[in-house]
Amino acid sequence: xxxxxxxxxxxxxxxxxxxxxxxxxxxxxxxxxxxxxxxxxxxxxxxxxxxxxxxxxxxxxxxxxxxxxxxxxxxxxxxxxxxxxxxxxx
Length: 90
Fold this sequence. Notes:
The protein is an all-alpha fold. The protein has one domain (24-86). Helix content is 78%, strand content 0%. The protein contains 3 helices and no strands.
């Protein structure tokens, strides 16, 4: 994901003339998806793989983890569909 983001920013910055970054809803939704995914990954790692965390905290976090997982998935699919329609591929 980070390699893809770097490639997109580089292609915009190196274009002649340079193109603006983050100027469409597609780009903002995509960036939000990447950030939320990273946060979800870190929180999930701490909640489920950190050995000293109590079972009660893990059980309490599961509904939130499921909600945000679905939300991030929908955001990701939305970003992909917006990107496809942005370039008229459909």
